[in-house]
Structure formats: C-alpha cells, structure tokens
Amino acid sequence: MKKPAMCLFGTALMILFLLLSGCPTDPPAGVVYGWSSMGETPFTPGNASHMSLEILDGKPVLAFRDSESNIHKASVMAWDSSAGDWTLVGDQHFSEHTATDVSLQMVNGNPLIAYRDVEDMTTNSGRVMSYNGVTWTRIGDEFCGGTGVLENNYSTVSFQMIGNTPCVAYAEDEVNSYVRVKTFSSGSWENLPGTLSVVVTDLSLKAVSASEVYLAYVREENNKIAVRVNDGMGWTVLGETTGFTDGEAAYISLDVYNGTPYVAFRDEANSDEITVMYWDGTAWTALGTPGFTSGTGAVASINLKVLNQNRAYVSYSRGGGSVYVEKWNGTSWSSVGGGRINDTDTQASNPVLQEHEGELFVAYQTTVFENATPVDYGATVKRWGEL
User: Fold this and answer.
1) What is the pLDDT confidence band of residue 171, given thresholds at 50, 70 and 90?
2) Mean pLDDT of the chain
3) Does the pLDDT of residue 333 top 90, yes or no?
4) What angle do CA 296, 340, 342 make, to 5 degrees?
C-alpha cells in the first residue's frame, strides 16, 4: 500500500534529524552493536607505545613507537580490509633514533608524523616525517633541536595540519619549559604570530584554519588549564590567563566543534575523575556532570572527540589495566558497551580514539596474560559497530 505523503515526510524528517544530531552510533532496532578486535590481540610485531590513530577511507592507521627487539623506533601500520590484517606503511623502524610523543596526521591519503627523536640521555629533537608512497622522508630541519623537547609523563608534542601545512606545538626541554607553536612554511619552521611566554607540563593543539588555531595547556605554576586561540595575528586567552579549572588538571585533550573549544581532563577538584568543559563565548562551562566517571584505579590517557553539541566521546584508561569509552548524548554521559573494552585476560593502557561515520576505533597498549603470567605485548585496535 502506498504510504501517505505525511508519513513519507515524517520519515524524511526523522532521517534528517538522525544525521544532524550525530546519532549513528545508536544501533537501529534489531541491530546489535558491540566491540570487536581488528586483527590479532595484539597485532604489532613487538610492544607498542606512544600511539596515535587516524582514519583513511574508513580504515584505521596507527603510528607508534615500535619496541620489537628493543629498537624503540617509529613504525606505522594500516588496516588492510581485503586481507583482514595490518600491514606496515613503508619501512619498519624508520625514525633515526628512539621515537616518543608520536603524533599522526593524514594529508591527501599519505601519513605524516611528528615526534621527539631521542638520540641519547641529553640530546633529542622534534621532527616531522612524511610518507610519499615509497619511503619516509624528513620535512625540513628539526622544529626543535639541541636539548629538544621536554620529557615528562604527559603530552609534550601535539601535531595538526592546516590544509597541507604542518603545525606543531611542543614544550621545550629547557630550565623553563616554554610552549611553542610552529608551522612549516617556505622551507623552514616559524613561530605562529604572537607571544607565548608560559611554562607548561601538558598541552593539546587543534588547528581549524590558519586564522583559528587553539592551544590548551596545563600551567606549571598552578597545574590549571588555560586555552588560547591564534587568529593569524596573535594569541588571545579564552577566560582566565591563570587557568579556569577549580583545581589541578592532567591528561588534557582538546577538540573544537563549530568554533567552540572543548577540553577533557582529569579533575583534581572532582575526585580525580574526568570533567569536560567548553567555552560558551564568555565562560568555561561543564558539559554534563563534572567528574562524571567512576571506578577503581587512577584515570589517565584521556582522548576527546566532539561530533556536535549532542554527541561526544571520551576514551581513557584506569590503573589496573582497563580501558573505557564514555558517550555524551546531549544530556548525560554513559558507557559505550557497558564497561571495560579490553579482554579479561589482558591489561590495557594509553588508549587513543577516533570516530568515522558512526563507528568508533580505539587503539591501546596491551599485555596478554596466561595463568597470571605476561606472554605477549603490543597494540590492539577495537571497533565499535555492528556485529
């Protein structure tokens, strides 16, 4: 029987609502969603750490410090859907020295990584390399040399692309660890316009365009978060220069949707659980309940992805070896999948998160146990989608 015009119109409105509200990760009636491993657990040749995850044509690409045979250099692997397995992108262990703080971006189908290249205990430098389909090559000289990039427990290199232009934020490994933001232009690395004279312990960068570059950081003097935006002319602080959080913050992650910056962090003022805040144009406001997570073990390695004002995701780990993902539905936060996403015979840490057309991808560091004895190490990637 032919549907009435009003019924067809209502169906069209519902489809439009679902597309605009960012609800594709809510399974339709009769469809079962869940977490599934992509390839083996773990799949990397050796232990993997300092991971960064991006999506190319719907398939995950993972950059990491590859510790097979204790070499600790950078490698990149991509999911091959036809083979149902992971393959190396270019050579394994392609960085010159030990790689840490690895950060991955994709440009025109090719991966680029920024990282801290550690030659020895006193010498390290910041470098960017790109893959041209055949080999990995350096982009310019080091963006930071000499004593190099600050080493601590948090992120001190954050990498974004402004179109085809690399943009990197880092904390200098000096007596005072000043933050720097640079772009690669005309064959050299140049500071973004404006003055940054702040010492930081953690940072997160998000570049929307050349006139909209956001930087979130934790101030060393009080461990509070501040956020600045560069309009191509200089830096402007959003909110308090000395920081807007009530207490100390750690493991910050920045994302931007439609000109609104969001920051997720471990919140000392709320039992060291996770809080997400956003800039409403005049002040920083909590997205949902502050300290909305709960559980056993210290929160670490927070990643935030904001799809729109009604849909956002946070991945994180807890001490004891569990990884979780939380979802914002426009009203409240809830668990994706109902609990930890790693298998019961594993311990997991350092998760990184991406979303693509309603599917979630989470990569994390894995230790596999048999009879309480560790027997394997490496990276695992899990996908949230239709089973």
Assistant:
1) confident
2) 91
3) yes
4) 120
Rounded CA-CA distance 359/80 in Å is 17
pTM value is 0.91
Note whether 314 and 336 are within 8 A (CB): no
Backbone angles phi, psi at 251, to 5 degrees: 55, 55
Give the model confidence (pLDDT) of 269-306 as tens digits: 999 999 999 999 999 999 999 999 999 999 999 999 99
What distance in Å separates the CA atoms of residue 77 and residue 63, rounded to the nearest whole number?
Answer: 7
pLDDT classification of 13: cutoffs 50, 70, 90: very low
Give the 3-state secondary structure of the chain.
CCCCHHHHHHHHHHHHHHHHHCCCCCCCCCCCEEEEECCCCCCCCCCEEEEEEEEECCEEEEEEEECHHHCCEEEEEEEECCCCEEEECCCCCCCCCEEEEEEEEEECCEEEEEEEEECCCCCEEEEEEEECCCCEEECCCCCECCCCECCCCCCCEEEEEECCEEEEEEEECCCCCEEEEEEEECCEEEECCCCCCCEEEEEEEEEEECCEEEEEEEECCCCCEEEEEECCCCEEECCCCCCCCCCCEEEEEEEEECCEEEEEEEEHHHCCEEEEEEECCCCEEECCCCCCCCCCCCEEEEEEEEEECCEEEEEEEECCCEEEEEEECCCCEEECCCCCCCCCCEEEEEEEEEEECCEEEEEEEEEEEECCEEEEEEEEEEEEEEC
Surface-to-core class of residue 27, CB atoms within 10 Å of its CB (0-12 exposed, 13-18 middle, 19+ buried): middle
Yes or no: say if 213 and 181 are a contact pair by the CB < 8 Å rule. Answer: yes
Alpha-carbon gap, residue 139 to 107, rounded angstroms: 13
Residues 120-166: pLDDT tens digits?
877 788 999 999 999 999 999 999 876 666 666 566 899 999 999 99
